[in-house]
Amino acid sequence: MSIIKIRMNNAQRVTFNTLILYIRMFLTVGISLYATRIVLNSLGEIDYGIYNIVGGVIGALSFLNGALSVSTQRYMSYNLGAGISKMQSKVFGNSFLLHLFLAILISLSLYLLEPFIFHSFLNINADRIPSAIIVYRFMSASIFFSIINVPFYATIISHENMLYISIVEIGRALLVLFFAFLLMEYNADRLIFYGFYMALFIFIEFIAFALYCFKKYKECTIKSLVLYDKSLQKELVSFMGWNTFGGFTSVSKNQGISIILNLFFGTVINAAYGIALQVSNQLGFFSQTMLKALNPQIMKSEGANNRERTIRLSILASKLGFFLISIFAIPVLFEIKSILLLWLKNVPENTEMFCTFVLISIMMNQSTIGLQSAVQAVGNIKKYMIFVAGNKLLILPVAYICLKIGLSPLSVMITYLFFESVSSVLRVFLLHIQANMSIKLFVKDVYLKIIIPLITILISGFLLTQIKISPYRFLYTIPIMMILYSVSIYLFGMKKYEKEELFKIIKSVRKKINI
To answer: How far apart (Å, rounded) are the C-alpha atoms in residues 310 and 299?
Structure first.
């Protein structure tokens, strides 16, 4: 009876957290997309491109948030699953000290690199360099607070308190929208104003998470900061180091391509590529939201020495990750031209092509994304990062060579898609080696389950888009595609026990609503 109760509690927790995160996601995605339109029209293609390339150089370091957060959260959740509450304070204290040291080191490095970046590296019009430098300094300050915020954010995630995270992030999105409207009325240098308020929101978010953790969680105290543990520090540094390398390669793939395109074509093409990444990031929230709800359970299962459940949840996360991104991405791909015109009004050249390849690539990535969580839970990430993450770095030299020999930007995106596909396949083989996952089981539960739903949405999309072109056709073609895809996923993409669990969860939610 106790085992059943624990499982039901876990299922209800995942359900509640997923529901909260999706409410947050729909609000923040809608707000962010609308704010992007306002900002693009207020700044213009040149300044928007400058922000993406300058902010991108700094923003590239934001990968540390994800990489370091997963590292801290892994140890927090693992110890919760293992029932070792005493380690919680040690993990938090040692993690905060590491992040503080890293934040100081990176801030100093950015200060020293400033002359090189603006006078020897980036291709920016001379009259906009002073403004770009100010934006760079704002973003440098925001990186400091982003890094020291990681232990607090990871603590909240490990306790599966998605409600508070959602409240803070929705509040931040609303502030971004408010200041986007102010940007339209701002008469001085709009690029500087935009850079300032984007950095300010990072600081506000840090304060909100830090104060909450010190008040809510017993492991987050000033005393925790003196619980120095040399062996734990060494373990954290090793785990964080490899996670950081993985995050670095992922960001290098995007920001590195942005820099390469800038070197050959200038800042205008960065606006097009930046919009493609914006679309990708917003749609990526659908699968990231699901992973945020499942990851703590995957980590805790490994901490409880339940490897079978760890693998089962990671396979499920991969399949759901693909479905959750493709149910939006594929209909958007069929109607991308109309959507971009309605959204942006003035669509930079190459935006449609960039969006198409980036979305296909992210779908390939999501088909195995859950396996990454399993590797994190197991803890042996060195080989994974070398082969899977390291493979993504090959995109940059190949892309540079393509442009150097005179090929078009299309060749860069073909390279992008190829190496993303290779990384996805490598994940499967490495988890088989490291955690004894059955490749046959993964193929059966993921790839074979997505074939029929994928064929369904592709055929329906092709037939529906043969209808006469109109600016608002997507208002009915996209919902029809999504409905047909959803039905096909239920009939052919889900296993029997998954359907049963789905009905249990729906029944549980209905009871809570009635109460």
So the answer is: 7
Whether the CA torsion 125, 129, 131, 137 is positive or negative: it is positive
Residue 52 structure tokens: 């993406």
Instruction: Measure the CA–CA gap between 7 and 19, rounded to whole angstroms.
Output: 18
How confident is the model over 52-95, as pLDDT tens digits? Answer: 777 665 655 666 666 667 777 777 777 766 666 667 778 888 88
Q: What's the 3-state SS for 408-444?
A: CHHHHHHHHHHHHHHHHHHHHHHHHHHHCCCHHHHHH
Backbone angles phi, psi at 465, to 5 degrees: -85, 5
Distance from the Cα of residue 249 to its chain's centroid? 14
- Please report, for the chain, the start and end positions of each structural domain, with discontinuous segments joined by +: 2-514
Q: How far apart are CA 140 and CA 199, in angstroms?
A: 9
Q: Give CA–CA dist 272/156, Å, rounded.
A: 36
Instruction: Work out the angle at residue 392's Cα, subtended by the Cα atoms of residues 426 and 434, and round it to the nearest 5 degrees.
Output: 30
Cα separation, 147 vs 140, whole angstroms: 11
* Structural Rg of the chain based on CA atoms: 23
334/480 Cα distance (integer angstroms): 12
225 DSSP 8-state letter: G
Identify the band that residue 209 occupies on the pLDDT scale cut at 50, 70 and 90.
very high
